[in-house]
Design goal:
This protein is of the alpha+beta class. Helix content is about 25%, strand content about 25%. The strands form two sheets. The protein has a four-stranded antiparallel sheet with strand order 3-6-1-7, with helices on one face. It has a three-stranded antiparallel sheet with strand order 2-5-4.
């Protein structure tokens, strides 16, 4: 699982999920920079480190041995969760994992060293593991 090595604060404030700002198109990380093909998000979602790891595994298995993979996002935002059947109050819950807020247009994965049909199928399989709609894009 991906997690930051060091953090200034163990728990973050939740923040407000403003609809228009969260769904606004991304301005950084929107082009395929390293590989030949990429997986671009079409909708907004919070991707956890577990989901990202499952997608990475699917991508590396389907891509083959010669494929080089780049993960363009990193889950650095902690999210907390209280234990099951615990009442309200008594402070904030424990850190349950880390997430990354993906906005539309962000490239999540890139792949190189695989043929076009294999790369497209591998990225499609990786996209099914994520809680968002995504499409395969080519390098310009």
């Amino acid at each position: 699982m991906l997690a930051p090595k060091k953090a200034k604060h163990r728990k973050w404030q939740s923040g407000r999920r403003r609809g228009k700002r969260l769904n606004a198109p991304e301005t950084r990380g929107i082009t395929v920079a390293f590989g030949s093909y990429g997986l671009k998000a079409l909708t907004q979602a919070r991707v956890t480190s577990n989901q990202l790891e499952a997608a990475r595994r699917a991508l590396s298995r389907a891509g083959g041995k010669s494929a080089k993979i780049w993960t363009r996002i990193f889950p650095d935002r902690p999210f907390t969760q209280k234990a099951a059947e615990v009442g309200m109050g008594s402070g904030k819950g424990d850190v349950a994992g880390f997430v990354f807020d993906v906005r539309p247009g962000r490239v999540i994965f890139e792949i190189d060293g695989a043929t076009e049909p294999i790369a497209r199928e591998a990225l499609r399989k990786a996209g099914t593991k994520l809680p968002l709609k995504a499409r395969v894009v080519e390098r310009m």
